[in-house]
What we know:
Layout: E1 6-14, E2 19-28, E3 31-41, H1 43-46, H2 54-75, E4 85-91, H3 95-112, E5 116-120, H4 121-127, E6 140-145, E7 150-155, E8 162-166, H5 172-182, H6 189-198, H7 222-234, H8 238-241, H9 246-264, H10 267-274, E9 278-282, H11 289-302, E10 305-307, H12 311-314, H13 318-325
Parallel strand pairs: 1-4, 4-5, 6-9, 9-10
Antiparallel strand pairs: 1-2, 2-3, 6-7, 7-8
Helix pairs in contact: 2-3, 4-13, 5-6, 5-7, 6-9, 9-11
The structure holds 5'-O-[(R)-(carboxyoxy)(hydroxy)phosphoryl]adenosine and zinc ion.
Amino acid sequence: MPSYTIRMLVLGLESSCDDCSAAVVEETAAGPVLKSLVRESQDAIHGPFGGVVPELAAREHLLQVRAVMAEAVAQAGIGLKDLDRIAVTRGPGLVGSLLATFSASKALAWQEGIPWVGVHHLLGHLNAARFSAPDLPFPALVLLVSGGHTHLYLAKDWTSLQLLQKTRDDAAGEAFDKAARMLNLGYPGGPVVDACARTANKAADPFTPPKFRDGKASWSFSGLKTAVKLRVERNPRLAAAGADDSDVQGLCRSLQEAISTWLLKPVPALAEEHGARSLVISGGVACNSRLRADAAVLAARAGLTLAIPEPRLCTDNGAMIAAAGALLEPDTEPWIQNADADLKLGA
Ligand code: KG4
Ligand code: ZN
């Protein structure tokens, strides 16, 4: 017999960018339990362009969404009738992409008479941490780092995020993707830079952190892109040398070291200022091995409980949307709801 009481089965759907994902999550008194997770990646489609092409992403989602939903339900060993709730990303994201799962979820909810809830994408990333840390002590500092976000929030619980600081320009994930593109390492850049950095015998010269004249707490990653470009211009061999080259590996190591160090720098002071008891890191960049290792050292030193989801739950996925949707009130009139590319938190 399980030691928890079954509360509900939630189907979570996510298609805000270039991943089409569905998951079934059983919300229990002990926290969410993953029953199935399906994700169709579009990396092969966007790879040749070095970034996501919105129109292609939207069209591909339309082709993928029905099979992805059906597969998640089948893998969970349940039928549609067993679902207690459907949760879907309402925004922010690429509107054409969002609409694929958003519309499909409404149709399914209508057809089966299942309660439905729209979820903010970033609340999803926060709730990805609930799978491994359901009893996380709050308040928590929440670092959300992906291809579109580099934001630090204060959370008083699993459903609230208050912005503390963010990037002024590029997201950290973009820095990985653009650097990998200049080095011709492939797309998405994060995983290849990470793998390359891990094989490096030594780091290249360190990157200089940006200085802000206005003194405002924030990050900036666009300078890194220029710095990598300058190094490649000075040493054009780097652009064609590939992942086995020791200079490329050293450059990746320095880049990763800079991004990890800069991302974590404000954490100790902000934790102290806000009385934070824990640190959550989520979003695709939270897969990064160096960031995960550095965060563990920092959290131990600062006395913070650290929660970083397992890598497949850090990148965009339906499970995090189901976990967040389980904690929200279902919408009484899903039929009049729409996806919102610029959805604000708390809206
Ligand atoms: O959360 P996500 O899947 O999608 C967005 O909402 O953007 O994040 C994708 C980003 C990409 O920029 C990708 O390069 C980065 O996450 N990423 C990584 C790693 N794995 C994925 N960045 C650094 N190291 C990794 N291991
Ligand atoms: Zn995301």
